[in-house]
Amino acid sequence: MIKPGCTVTKDHLKDFLASIQAMRKTQCYVGIPAEKTPRKGEPINNAALGYIFEFGSAAANIPARAVLVPGVKSVQKDTIADLRHGAINLFRDPSALERSFNRCGLRASTAVKKAIVALGDYGPDSKTLQARQRRGFKGAGIERVTGQFLNSFTYVIRGK
User: Fold this and answer.
1) Mean pLDDT for all residues in the chain
2) Is residue 24 part of a domain?
3) 94 CB-contact burial (10 Å; exposed 0-12 / middle 13-18 / buried 19+)
4) pLDDT (tens digit, 9 = 90+) per residue, 31-58?
5) Whole-number Å distance between alpha carbons of 105 and 71
6) Is position 47 within any domain?
7) In which domain, by residue range, is 75 found?
8) Is 61 exposed, middle or buried (0-12, 13-18, 19+ CB in 10 A)?
9) Quick one: pLDDT band at residue 149, thresholds 50, 70, 90?
10) Are 92 and 77 in contact (CB under 8 A)?
11) What is the pTM of this model?
12) Distance between CA 135 and CA 129 in Å, rounded?
């Protein structure tokens, strides 16, 4: 309610409420988007590799090496702070929310990549390492042959 003697010069309430509704309908997804799945010269795509990496494969005797969920959870407090900052500044700057969603996505996808790199090297008895050595690869790093898998992790911002 406007008090007597006050004059409204600009009413941005409708825009503000529309922005809040847009925020509620916006989600940030972290992982391997469909357009990032192909692998050059490989029969399996990055999304399938990501699933196997995260959950393992009993049939192929591959242990789970969860990185997606733990990586995203590791920055959850920071992403909540980013979104809070975007919402607070929404009234002054309509693009603040979009920037905060992008910060969240970048922060979370970077955390996932760091989690992959932190896994280190395959053990000397690893069949994967032995297969790579037969193909001429010298390193023992989990994701370091071409970088295709590591680089496929990103984020997308979409409405519900």
Assistant:
1) 83
2) no
3) middle
4) 998 766 777 777 888 888 889 889 999 9
5) 12
6) no
7) 68-159
8) exposed
9) confident
10) no
11) 0.76
12) 10
